[in-house]
Design a protein that fits this description.
Elements: E1 3-8, H1 18-26, E2 29-34, H2 40-46, H3 52-70, E3 76-78, H4 84-95, E4 99-103, H5 108-120, E5 125-129, H6 151-158, E6 183-184, H7 198-211, H8 218-221, H9 235-239, H10 245-259, H11 263-285, H12 306-314, H13 320-332, H14 337-350, H15 355-365, H16 371-382, H17 396-403, H18 408-412
The structure holds flavin-adenine dinucleotide.
Flavin-adenine dinucleotide binds next to helix 9, helix 11, helix 14 and helix 16.
Length: 434
């Protein structure tokens, strides 16, 4: 009897999921488990746990996955213990697991867990696949270790390569008879936000986006701070893997065939390549994605200012635009790319804080949190990553004149400036008020 265990992480879908498809074809019974992302740096150093909005969005995504599985008489289970290796070990023993599958994850801790499983249970067959990237290492002319230090040479190397076509939803084997010791996922119906979540809604969002003309003007609108369809908003469904980047590329190509390709449609591809770059970057740089000097032997100039950090988190800095951005982030779990750049640049340059705490705060609050894109972009802005210019310092006054000239965004998110940056008040550490 071959017993399969599938570990869903950032691939919460059944279609275009090569590891799941391969595992399903090789086993007699199948157990599906969701493994939450763990970033030990964030958990230990910044003492962050996901915000309520992030919990809601995850709950919606898992509920959708649970329902997709139910349509095939399957169920989604959770680990009983937060110590993932211990909990998995127990399941492997009690269920007599013979095969384990998962999508390749760019996160260092997630990779460590996978390697540890292989060390501890060498008799098990392991099946993994690149489900959340456009390409696989075999289809690239360079290896992960040869990834260029900046985006442009990477883009030039890969942009003409066609990703594989997405694959169909597999027929899943049944659950084993004895699963009473597993913790079944139970949706909490009071946890809900109005953002497309899960595979069916992701496909709907994809279709709806390409039914509009938005893709034809994406390049001109993508830097906006707010409004409808100024960017694709695919990031939350991509982050949880409710959709694959290959499915998006396929829809984009179809759109270009029907409506015509232009610089804007190319730019959506360009941004998907940025995402791709950071995924390979995280795989290459491993734990240095989280280190203070990043991938450069350069130590940023920062000091320890708990009060500044608290004010940035709460949107109470002397800058109204930054405050509005932080309010939108903490209330909705999503902000535009330009807003992320402004908030991060202000954090690093004006507040002179350690970039990793900013990245950890984003991790805690973004519904589209993606380990590679988040920490890679923060490194870029802090000048310890992939930026060939050595970091970005946005002139916030100019940004405001360009992207919020009438102060509409600031008004919408109540971004009043507070005059003083540093007071004499004592702010304890770690912060308790977040
Ligand atoms: C400091 C900082 C932190 C960030 N953290 C995250 C994160 O945790 N998760 C995340 O998905 N993106 C992150 N980004 C990248 C980018 O801001 C978001 O992907 C984008 O704003 C999401 O909105 P969208 O889907 O409408 O993007 P669109 O503009 O429509 O782009 C389409 C897709 O391309 C990808 N993409 C676009 N820009 C980038 C980029 N700069 N880097 C990597 N991928 C990109 C995303 O998958 C996005 O969904 C971060 C950027 C910065 C500056």
């Amino acid at each position: 009897m071959k017993v399969g265990l599938y570990l869903f992480e950032n691939d919460c879908r059944l279609s275009d999921n090569p590891a799941l498809t391969t595992l399903a074809s090789q086993v007699d019974t199948l157990i599906c488990i969701y493994l939450p992302t763990v970033n030990l740096w964030t958990a230990r150093k910044a003492q962050c746990s996901p915000s309520f909005t992030v919990e809601c969005y995850r709950n919606q995504t898992l509920n959708a996955l649970h329902q997709s599985l139910a349509s095939q008489q399957q169920k989604l289970y959770l680990l009983r213990d937060t110590a993932q290796l211990k909990a998995l070990t127990e399941i492997i023993h009690t269920q007599q697991v013979t095969h384990i599958g998962r999508a390749v994850h760019p996160g260092f801790d997630e990779q460590k867990l996978w390697l540890k499983l292989q060390d501890n249970f060498p008799h098990i067959q392991y099946i993994s696949a690149y489900s959340n990237t456009l390409f696989e290492p075999d289809s690239l002319p360079i290896s992960v270790s040869e990834l260029p230090p900046s985006f442009t040479p990477f883009r030039k190397t890969v942009e003409e390569i066609e990703p594989k076509l997405p694959i169909a939803t597999p027929q899943l084997p049944p659950r084993p008879n004895r699963v009473s010791d597993l913790a079944e996922f139970k949706a909490n119906s009071s946890y809900s936000i109005k953002v497309a979540a899960g595979e069916a809604q992701a496909q709907q969002q994809l279709q709806q986006y390409f039914q509009t003309d938005a893709a034809l003007t994406y390049k001109e609108t993508r830097n906006a701070l707010f409004g409808e369809h100024f960017s694709t908003r695919f990031s939350p469904i991509l982050a949880y893997g409710a959709i694959s980047p290959r499915q998006i590329k396929q829809a984009l190509t179809q759109f270009e065939q029907q409506r015509g390709a232009n610089e804007s449609t190319y730019w959506i591809w360009f941004e998907l390549l940025w995402r791709e770059y950071f995924h390979w970057y995280a795989l290459k740089h491993q734990h240095t994605l989280f280190s203070f000097s990043g991938v450069k032997a350069k130590t940023p100039k920062t000091s320890f200012y708990p009060e500044r950090f608290l004010k940035w988190c709460q949107g109470r800095t002397p800058n109204a635009l930054v405050n509005a951005i932080m309010h939108e982030l903490t209330k909705t779990g999503w902000i535009s790319n330009r807003a992320r750049q402004i908030a991060a640049s202000y954090f690093v340059n004006e507040l002179q804080l350690d970039w990793r705490y900013g990245a950890a705060f984003f991790e805690q609050h973004l519904i589209d949190y993606d380990v590679a894109a988040n920490w890679g972009n923060w490194q870029y802005i802090a000048g310890v990553g992939a930026d060939p210019r050595g970091g970005r310092h946005f002139n916030i006054t100019k940004q405001q004149a360009l992207f919020d000239p009438d102060g509409e965004y600031i008004k919408l998110w109540q971004g009043e400036a507070t005059p003083q940056l540093d007071s004499q008040d004592h702010v304890g550490w770690p912060l308790e008020d977040n």
